[in-house]
Amino acid sequence: MTETSVCTKEHCLYCFDVLNSYLTGEKIKKPTFPNKKYPLFVTWHIMVRGEEYLRGCIGNFKAMEVHQGLKRYALISALHDSRFDPISKKEFPKLTCAVSLLHDFEEVEDIMDWEVGVHGIWIEFKDIDGEKLTATFLPEVAEEQNWSKKKTIDSALRKGGYSGAKITDEYRKTIKLTRYKSDKKTVTYEEYLKYKENKEKDNEKK
To answer: Which residues form the AMMECR1 domain (predicted)?
Structure first.
């Protein structure tokens, strides 16, 4: 069953609320959007001298209620992505937040049976010492990087920790690949600021 338009900007605004609360101590209200279960990812970008850079991206492939899931991963991706230092209060006004709700997971027999720009990939594989490893790329990554399917798979192997000197066609055939789709929305800090101002005006009228 295919699901579309499950993600809204409200999901992103809530992630901004969660991070703002952590950085400032400001209290937040419980979200009002439906609390359905989805695998999800939260991604933070930062604008530096007109260029946008990744600042954190972590999620979970286990379906979880989005209220708790977004509250958890808004902070994990902002503060505990091992590739980056924790996001600071000073950086907050330069952020953009994206939420991806994942659906339509399908394990494929042919690891090339997916479409760049449409599917994300989740791979499971063994390193040269036999250790079981995993890696994923969300649907937009291969398209943004202008990668072929082969390049995307090889990049996922390296991301996941594959330590072999060379990736051969024979080795690629041992990979277990699951394709999936994602409904994604993005909100800038400026949009979040406007949202907060409107909330304050509504509270004043009450």
So the answer is: 1-196
CB 124 within 8 A of CB 134: yes
The answer on 90 and 129 residing in a single domain is no
- Which of 38, 81, 58, 19 has its CA nearest to residue 138? 58
- Give how far Cα 166 sits from Cα of 133, 154, 158, 177, 187, Å: 17, 10, 11, 19, 40
Residue 3 lies in a domain: no
Query: Dihedral of CA 14/15/18/24: which sign?
Result: negative
pLDDT means per 10 residues, the chain with 206 residues, are: 70 98 95 95 95 95 96 98 96 98 96 97 96 95 96 96 95 97 96 92 68
Angle ∠(85,90,96) on CA atoms, nearest 5: 75
CA-CA distance, 104 to 112, in Å (whole number)?
Answer: 17
Residues 14 and 96 in one domain: yes
Taking the model in full, what pTM does it have? 0.87
Q: 48: which 2 tokens?
A: 């530096």
Q: Is 161 helix (H, G, I), strand (E, B) or coil?
A: coil
Cα 16 vs. chain centroid, distance in angstroms?
14
